[in-house]
Each structure stands twice: as structure tokens, then as C-alpha cells.
Amino acid sequence: MYVTPQQAFNEALIRMSVLLYQADGMVTLTEQDYLDEFIDSLDWQSPISESAFLNNAIYETRKALDVGDGEKYLKALQQDLLFDADKAMEVAMAITGADGERCDEEAELLTLLTHKLLAKALVSCGQPNGPGGTAPVSI
């Protein structure tokens, strides 16, 4: 089954969000509400329902966290998250701040996102016309 780049990004966002809100071992109602609203806003393009996908993502993420593979799990999402690095960071910041605090585990995963996995894309987004950020000017 062919998955569009947009759908792969949607799925990576859900997996990333679940990882981030489970990182501290507690899931608050606020975090769950944010995730549910976020998923409802996605342009879902899969024959697999959002809820079935979410349930599987929760299972996969819990398994990764139980064996200490949270960072490895996040790294595996890198390519799909690069589809829209700004949106990925927006979602990551929102889900980790939804309950009013960021634990050390969440902060470490955010640092991995901003400083390694999405760093180049986040920097280049602010400079759409190349390294200098300026377009040639004709006079």
C-alpha cells in the first residue's frame, strides 16, 4: 500500500506525540485531550482508522520506552518528520507543555529533535532563499 508523504508525516507526528507524552511515565488528561484534538485535525489519508493507528502507536511506544529505546524510536521517525520540521516542533512543544511542565525525559527528547534530528531543516526554514537568506535583487 502506497503511503503519501503527508500521511507518513501524520503517522510520525502521532508516534512522536505518544512518545513525548509517555516519556515521563504518566499520561495526563490534558495531554490526552490535546492529542485527541490534534489527531482530529489531521488530513488522515489511510484506510486504517486514526484510533486503530493510535492504539498501535501507544503499544509500540510503550514497548520502546520499557526497554530504554525512546531515543532510537524517535530517530526512526526523523525522515518522515522532516516533511514539515516546523510543524513537528510545534506539535512537540505543545504536547510536552500541555500539562504545564516538561520533565527531564521530555526535555531530552526535545533537545534531540531540535539539535540533531530536525536541526538543519529548522535552520533552513528561516532562510528560504539559501544560506544567506536573501534572494538576488535585480535593479
TrEMBL record:
<dbReference type="InterPro" id="IPR007791">
    <property type="entry name" value="DjlA_N"/>
</dbReference>
<feature type="domain" description="Co-chaperone DjlA N-terminal">
    <location>
        <begin position="11"/>
        <end position="114"/>
    </location>
</feature>
<protein>
    <submittedName>
        <fullName>TerB family tellurite resistance protein</fullName>
    </submittedName>
</protein>
<dbReference type="Pfam" id="PF05099">
    <property type="entry name" value="TerB"/>
</dbReference>
<dbReference type="InterPro" id="IPR029024">
    <property type="entry name" value="TerB-like"/>
</dbReference>
